[in-house]
């Protein structure tokens, strides 16, 4: 989106005025309202979505569950260039609101760009925990299985998989996860342990 020159000048004047007002505003409610206006001007009238995202982030930093900021960010999740940053802002917002279904979904979005194994494991474990609380054991098993596959030497996570498999009646899914784990390791003792565990399931 590229605004026309004339409308750009007007939008820039409006933005500057809002910035001036924000600098003099007192109270969280007034600051949030002005910052939301600034975000909308930057996004819809000036064609600066990344700047708008930062403004929405400022609102959430002051008011973590602000519904208008959350709704606006949710509407920007489909923009590839903003997606990662938007997800980064929505994750703590959903966590503070205990919105578990949305938290699980946004963690999946975050995983699209997280490459560090410990951070991936943490995100997947949190996703699994959210799915358990949502009474969705099959989805929890899938998430925890993916967490374990990030580090197949993690005995604690492997033990937890058994419990989730029982809750979800997901024994075949557990076997599939174990097969992937066997393929992922070259450690003889661990491979033997995983084969033994798989035999017990079967």
SSE blueprint and pairings:
Elements: H1 5-24, H2 28-45, H3 49-62, H4 67-74, H5 80-97, H6 100-111, H7 117-133, H8 137-150, H9 155-168, H10 171-184, H11 188-201
Helix pairs in contact: 1-2, 2-3, 3-4, 3-5, 5-6, 6-7, 7-8, 8-9, 8-10, 10-11
Report the average pLDDT across residues. Answer: 94
The helix fraction, in percent, is: over 70%
Radius of gyration over all CA atoms, rounded:
23 Å
**CA-based shape:** elongated
Give helix and strand order, one letter per element, not per position: HHHHHHHHHHH
The number of E-state strands comes to 0
Query: Helix segment count?
Result: 11
Strand-pairing-aware structural class: mainly alpha
Q: N-to-C terminal Cα separation, in Å?
A: 57 Å
Strand coverage percent: under 5%
How can the largest sheet be summarized?
none
What does this entry look like structurally?
This protein has 202 residues and is mainly alpha-helical. 81% of the residues lie in helices and 0% in strands. The protein has 11 helices and no strands. It has helices at residues 5-24, 28-45, 49-62, 67-74, 80-97, 100-111, 117-133, 137-150, 155-168, 171-184, 188-201. α2 runs antiparallel to α3 (49-62) and α3 (49-62) packs antiparallel against α4 (67-74). The mean pLDDT is 94.
């Amino acid at each position: 989106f590229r605004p026309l020159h004339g409308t750009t000048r007007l939008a820039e004047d409006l933005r500057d005025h809002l910035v001036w007002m924000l600098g003099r505003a007192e109270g969280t409610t007034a600051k949030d309202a002005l910052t939301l206006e600034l975000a909308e001007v930057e996004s819809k009238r000036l064609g600066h979505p990344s700047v708008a995202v930062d403004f929405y982030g400022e609102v959430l930093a002051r008011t973590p569950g602000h519904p208008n900021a959350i709704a606006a960010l949710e509407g920007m999740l489909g923009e590839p260039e903003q997606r990662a940053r938007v997800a980064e802002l929505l994750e703590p917002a959903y966590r503070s609101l205990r919105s578990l279904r949305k938290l699980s979904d946004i963690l999946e979005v975050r995983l699209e760009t997280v490459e560090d194994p410990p951070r991936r494991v943490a995100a997947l474990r949190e996703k699994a925990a959210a799915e358990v609380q949502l009474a969705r054991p099959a989805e929890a098993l899938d998430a925890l299985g993916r967490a374990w596959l990030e580090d197949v030497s993690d005995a604690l996570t492997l033990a937890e998989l058994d419990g989730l498999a029982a809750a979800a009646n997901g024994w075949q899914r557990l076997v599939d996860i174990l097969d992937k784990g066997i393929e992922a390791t070259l450690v003889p003792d661990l491979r033997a342990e995983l084969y033994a565990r798989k035999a017990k399931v079967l």
